[in-house]
Amino acid sequence: MSGRTIPVRVVVVAMTVAAVAGAALRGAVEERPSARAKVDVGTSRSRLVAAGPRRWVDGAPSGFSRNVEGARAAAVAYSTLGGTLLNLDPITLRRVASSISTSETATTRAQTLQESSDAVRQRLAGGNGPYATYQSPVLVRIDSFDDDEATVTLWLVSVVMRRGIAEPQSTWTTVSLTLSWERDDWRLASERSIDGPTPDQSVDEAPISVKEFEQRLKGAQPTWGPR
To answer: HEC string of the chain?
Structure first.
């Protein structure tokens, strides 16, 4: 069966909505803070680095600063760990989910992550090797911020593949995350997503294979996450 006959788009979006990963944002950022904002949203490289994460436990980031840069870094982190989650055992996955969630939402989010992970694994079960999912924000916007709560919207691209079952395929998603300051860090309180907007990807070339993808990008590392 051709890998391109395996539609994984729906489950990739599910992983994107509930995912976690991590790094301070680098790149194009549009910020529109609400009247509640109490700190300067000017962004220097040093402030982005100081935003966190400052530590990683079981692949989950933590240690974000209590300012707008820290909230933005946490949102980027919490929206891009789909690939890491797919390769975690159930116990570690639930521990990670609880770590990045508010106390009120931890149990439900852990269950959602487990169900999403199981769905992706089932879709890709006929392949071999690791489950490869790469996610990265293209644009990030601060919708609101104060010392206790922040809402961040991210436009993300996700690429998923697995040898023998799914050739590299992408999906574009807009995700809005609400973060609450709890237990001395930004924790995920709620999330919602919508499909797109999707850029025109019409090309005459045949889709790239997993083998060619790996050959072209051999040695490349994600711009986020632990090395």
So the answer is: CCHHHCCCHHHHHHHHHHCCCCCCCCCCECCCCCCCCCCCCCCCHHHHHHCCCCEEECCEEECCCCCHHHHHHHHHHHCCCHHHHHCCCHHHHHHHHHHHECCCCHHHHHHHHHHHHHHHHHHCCCCEEEEEEEEEEEEEEEEEECCCEEEEEEEEEEEEEEECCEEEEEEEEEEEEEEEEECCEEEEEEEEEEECCCCCCCCCCCCCCHHHHHHHCCCCCCCCCCC
Q: What residue ranges do the domains of the chain occupy?
A: 3-198+206-216
Measure CA 135 to chain center: 6
- pTM score, whole prediction: 0.75
| C-alpha span between 53 and 129 (Å, rounded) | 29
pLDDT tens-digit series, residues 183-223 = 999 999 999 888 889 887 766 667 778 888 778 777 776 66
